């Protein structure tokens, strides 16, 4: 079994893969002060919940955008699983070419997501990841990343809204039943939801306007689930896209 670990700014997401099948996924809140023992205990408990033990794990692949968490998490893998994990980064073969001004600045999560989209659904494709930040990255028909957009995620927008105003409360990030809000919570939810959705639709429309070829839009990320059924600009929503990319990258390098 392969354990794929996506270390993001908000959550650490674990995927357990048997061949091409994802047999379990789990989330941990990203905290820099967790020790390797804490991460190791959580990992082994999640394995047990899926009916596995540490001995069932053949390899581990990690994709991280949070360097300060990497030391303790990597140490937990070495200590509890007795495995030196594969880290997606410089020197790793992804099968994806990068043609942007500074290729080294491209996040490992973006590379893995684009690999998952291209090798699962083909190209050209616009890969939209609804995470802490919302990223839209274009992969052409030859598997080359050529351009992209980075904007605030809906959760980041919400935190700015209630964090910088004196009387607006913290509210659940959710799709509102109507845009006609009659209380503070409903008004905030409607504003956050529809401003994000409208912005994404406009960005995708601009990609279509400036790119002289048809492409599909592949969405992923936990918050993408809220928007996938409320717009016709998203062709595919795949919450496990990054794990599929990490599996592909691991196969190319193992």
From TrEMBL:
Write out the catalysed reaction: (R)-pantothenate + ATP = (R)-4'-phosphopantothenate + ADP + H(+)
Which cofactor does this sequence's record say it needs? K(+); NH4(+)
Q: What residues bind ATP, as annotated?
A: 6-13, 132
The UniProt record lists the EC number as: 2.7.1.33
The annotation note on the cofactor reads:
A monovalent cation. Ammonium or potassium.
> Which GO annotations describe the biological process of this protein?
coenzyme A biosynthetic process
Q: InterPro entries annotated for this entry?
A: ATPase_NBD, Type_III_PanK
What is the main EC category here?
transferase
Recorded family membership = Belongs to the type III pantothenate kinase family.
By its UniProt entry, which NCBIfam families does this protein fall under? Answer: baf, PRK13318.1-4, PRK13321.1
Function statement: Catalyzes the phosphorylation of pantothenate (Pan), the first step in CoA biosynthesis.
Q: What is this protein called?
A: Type III pantothenate kinase
Q: Which organism is it from?
A: Bifidobacterium lemurum
């Amino acid at each position: 079994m392969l354990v794929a670990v996506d270390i993001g700014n908000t959550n650490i997401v674990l995927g357990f893969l048997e061949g091409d099948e994802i047999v379990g996924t789990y989330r941990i809140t990203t905290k820099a002060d967790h020790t390797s023992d804490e991460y190791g205990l959580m990992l082994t408990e999640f394995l047990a919940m899926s009916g596995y033990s540490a001995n069932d794990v053949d390899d581990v692949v990690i994709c991280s955008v949070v360097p300060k968490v990497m030391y303790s998490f990597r140490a937990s893998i070495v200590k509890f699983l007795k495995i030196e994990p594969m880290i997606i980064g410089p020197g790793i073969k992804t099968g994806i070419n990068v043609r942007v001004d500074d290729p080294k600045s491209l996040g490992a999560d973006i590379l893995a997501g684009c690999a998952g989209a291209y090798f699962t659904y083909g190209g050209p494709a616009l890969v939209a990841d609804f995470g802490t930040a919302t990223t839209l990255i274009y992969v052409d028909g030859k598997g080359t990343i050529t351009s992209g957009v980075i904007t605030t995620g809906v959760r980041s927008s919400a935190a700015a809204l209630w964090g910088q105003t004196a009387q607006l409360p913290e509210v659940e990030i959710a799709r509102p039943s109507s845009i006609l809000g009659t209380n503070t919570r409903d008004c905030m939810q409607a504003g956050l939801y529809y401003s994000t959705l409208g912005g994404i639709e406009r960005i995708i429309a601009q990609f279509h306007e400036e790119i002289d070829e048809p492409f599909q839009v592949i969405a992923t990320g936990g918050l993408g689930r809220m928007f996938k059924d409320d717009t016709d600009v998203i062709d595919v929503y795949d919450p496990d896209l990054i794990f599929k990319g990490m599996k592909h990258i691991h196969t190319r390098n193992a």
